[in-house]
Write a structure and sequence with these properties.
Blueprint (H helix, E strand, L loop, with lengths): L10 E5 L3 H13 L3 E5 L2 H11 L3 E4 L8 H10 L7 E6 L6 H8 L3 E4 L4 H68 L2
Parallel strand pairs: 1-2, 1-3, 3-4, 4-5
């Protein structure tokens, strides 16, 4: 996405203890038209995620205190953050890293340093997911509205039908009386 696109931007939280890398990544993500918050450790990242509920968290794995795995697990355990997409950005060469990242709750795993094309592609996918989720939510709201309108229309039709039945009953009575009158005593 570029800044000139009309597609809504994402709210991205970057959690990285290397301030230079975090700020550089934030600049890159902002240039793509997204809103960015930066946290320089896992604990601050978790607080920020809970405070701003971003669309996406890009997190380093190796950080002091609360590492990226712990951050992802806590984000996944928070119902308010259920829809947040998690991207692990790490230079971790441990063969168990992809499994650990997935088990912790990361949706995407990108190597560090970030390949800007891969990161852009993942952010585009997340943006499309958000756009589809927003459209789905709007359609759901419209369906609820239509269901309410349909219920009201059915109620009106039932009332009209009741009136028509009453009118038919009265007409039948009138016809019976006219018939009796015509048949005479």
């Amino acid at each position: 996405m570029t800044v000139t696109d009309n597609v809504p931007s994402l709210h991205v939280l970057i959690v990285e203890d290397d301030r230079v890398a975090a700020d550089a990544l934030a600049t890159l993500v902002r240039r793509r038209g997204h809103r960015v918050n930066v946290a320089y450790d896992g604990e601050s990242g978790l607080r920020d995620a809970r405070a701003c509920v971003p669309d996406c968290v890009i997190s380093d794995i190796h950080m002091p205190a609360l590492d990226g795995y712990g951050l992802a697990r806590q984000v996944r355990a928070d119902a308010d953050l259920a829809d947040v997409k998690m991207i692990a950005l790490s230079a971790n060469d441990d063969p168990e890293h992809p499994r650990k990242a997935a088990e912790a709750g990361f949706d995407y795993l990108l190597p560090k340093p970030a390949d800007t094309a891969n990161l852009a592609e993942v952010l585009d996918v997340i943006e499309k997911i958000k756009e589809l989720a927003d459209k789905t939510q709007e359609l759901t709201r419209q369906n609820v509205d239509l269901a309410g309108q349909t219920k009201e229309l059915i109620k009106e039709v039932k009332e009209d039908l009741k009136e028509v039945k009453q009118e038919v009953k009265e007409l039948k009575e009138d016809i019976r009386e006219v018939k009796e009158h015509l048949d005479g005593p």
